Amino acid sequence: MERKKFNKNSNPKRKAGSYKKAPLRKPSGKKSDNNPHTKANDGKIRLNKYLANAGICSRREADTLISSGAVSVNGKVITEMGFKVAPTDKVNFGGETIRSEKKVYLLMNKPKDFITTVDDPFGRRTVLQLLGKLKERVYPVGRLDRATTGLLMLTNDGDLTKKLTHPKFGVKKIYHVTLEKNVKENHLQHLLDGFELEDGFTQADVCRYVGDGRDKKQVGIELHSGKNRIIRRMFEHLGYTVIKLDRVYFAGLTKKDLARGQWRFLTQKEVNMLQMNSNKD
Cys-Cys link to 235, which of 11, 124, 228, 240 (CB 3.0-4.6 A)? Predict the structure, then answer.
């Protein structure tokens, strides 16, 4: 049988650039409204961000609430991460309907005998009662005990609240402390060196007499710790009783032009400063 010879001229080489790509086909089926990778112009945002915007918690904490089944949307419990909600959706948490409000930031000069909680089962006065008929629902950033006065920030920005109260961000706080007796100089050094309390080691960043130092019952103390009643417990450990405790500085904010019991909105410059500082890792 005769073998057929291959004729190279019968299959000419393809010219460069002659290849054409086949047209891309559009994927079939409708895209999911809750695909977290799909951008939409319908005003939808992630459920965790919605909760944070409402001041309930930070976005990370919201993820935990969602995964535990504590949040429902339009009557249906949602546990899916990345789930998105529209402005018209009804979001429910803790038996209440949550509304995503515009973020507001307030600074208060807290008076004595007010507690820093949203409400109190014993009927004691809360700092929220000082705000009057504020449209947005805000929450205290950290706590000042009932007898402590001074700077207290309130906001519905859950993410910023988390950062301002988390120890790793080291938010600077300064207090003016009045004691029942003169504070010994070696005890000021003891506060700086630090010591063990029942809940662990603690120390002041800065500690000195107020003003010219003539009144040794007046002490200024700077620290980053947010532990409960930490300053009172530190002085009690050294044998002193705190008569007055006033926070005069918080995260770059001061009491300038803010009378006791009064509050004001933060300026945009102040908000930007807080957000910039809290983003430093």
Answer: 240
